[in-house]
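Re: [help] complex structure
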Amino acid sequence: MHAVRTAWRITRLNIRAQMEYRVEFLLNIAIGAIWQVSVIVFATVLLARFSGMGGWDSSEVLLIPATRMLAHGLFVLFLGRMHGIGRFVQEGKIDIYLVRPLPVHRQVQLEYFPTNAIGDLTVAAGLMAGALGRSHLDWTAGRVTYLVVCLIGGMLLEAALFTAVACASLRFPAAGYWGRWLEELLGTFGSYPLNVLPKAVGGLLTFGLPLAFVAYFPAAVLTGHGHDTGVPYWLAAASPLLGVLAYLAARLLWRWSLDHYTGVNG
Amino acid sequence: MSGSIEVRGLSRAFRSTVRRPGFAGALRSLIDPERVTKYAVSDITFDVAPGELLALLGPNGAGKSTTIKILTGILTPTAGEARVAGVVPYQERERNARNIGAVFGQRTQLWWDLPVRESFAILRDIYEVPRAEHAARLREFDDLLELSAFWDTRVRHLSLGQRVRCDLAAALLHDPPVVFLDEPTIGMDVVVKEQVREFLRHQVEQRGRTVLLTTHDMTEVERLAERVVLVNHGRLVLDGTLDEIRRTYGSTWQVRVTLADAHAAVVPLPGIALLGRDGPRAVFGPDGSGAPTVHQALKAVIERYEVTDVAIDEADLEDVMRAAYVHAGPAVEEA
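Output below.
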């Protein structure tokens, strides 16, 4: 309880501090929304020009970018500061975190409030509202619960990937570039049903970089395409569980990496 | 809680790649890197008693910061062990963090975009300091460091001197028995430096805190430390008082006297050599490694001879440290 209270207090102060720089605050929200322009264009073109894609109708396809973006927005809001680890190492901030009686990971997340997440989440919520509004599915309590669980799983899976990059950044700050590449990749391929891509690429985005588990498989299970994904149905349905497991593994890797931290001069 | 620091056979190795000269060398290193293990700290042993201020000195790259990073729980040693207030810092990092305060002169632990007082309040919550206790300690620190003039300013707008004073206060708000200061006064003007030194003296003498200080400022060492640990190339070179360091590396004092009797016979005294004689004027200097300090020598000369005038020439601590750094052995390295 004390930890939650402290975290909330720091977050509140961080938000207040950012709001005092009004223009910067508004620009950050705007950039969060504008950053998603490619997804908005994709959704517009999809709805205006195509009736569907890869055997999915357009309202079903729309559920993929909506799920991915909402999971991404939650990741940016709650766990997204892992992007900055390389910079934090070079600025000596990790050293400072290590001499405070709080977990380093929590301190990284409390370093600043991610104002851009407001933009991300606004666009994502709009997209999700559009996807649900056009959906022909019967949104039972079970389906809604599964969608919420998938969003959390997607958030954790993305966090796991960026935590792994952050672990590398602890030792090699330049590894942060891999984070940018990862973000680019998630943004580029995260909106499509992966069955429209060549099999090798789809396989890579499933078993190499588990992008398919963030939104494609959950959307497939929700829309009744769960048996046509190229992986066993149970595996597609277990996407949120994979997110949880991947995140736990990433946190173990983070702990190991911190134990082997060599500092800015190491 | 005892604020002692115990360091036993502490070593920390880093693996690095040998840089080969030229572009071809860089290419060769890329394909076939030659890796070496370098010891930033090698087999260092020392203690700091509760309530003692110890200066950990050495040239750049000597291993001072690495030692402090191990003692604060930032780094894990390759060999040896350390205890700070009874806790092994790299095994129980968070428990150790509650017992220590740390200031790294070139970095801040304050929140960059928040007013200083908000940072203090966050630290109060993190360390679970009761509000009344926090307020009393802030008042005490304000009296010594004049913080209230700028503690409602955001950290990003503070001058270096203001920021480091706030960092010092932040490091001590939870009343830690042990404090680590890594070049805390670097880049400060003389007035603020003196204020910080006064604050540190107060913390040691009045509050009984144990302080481990690294600095390149020898005035600071002379004003604050009685005992010094000197490291170079990762090895402990000397552990002793300032007088002992002067005796070992800086025996360059001279005592010049004018004798009342120009014809008096002058003979060397124990540990004191007669360096020159010109009528009533005589010059004495240290004789061998067992020589007394300049003040002891002056006392001995005045007691032995009737003099009408005295003058002392003494190497300052900076000269002494320069001699000590040059004297120390080569880097510890293995392929």
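The beta strands of chain A are 52-53, 56-57.
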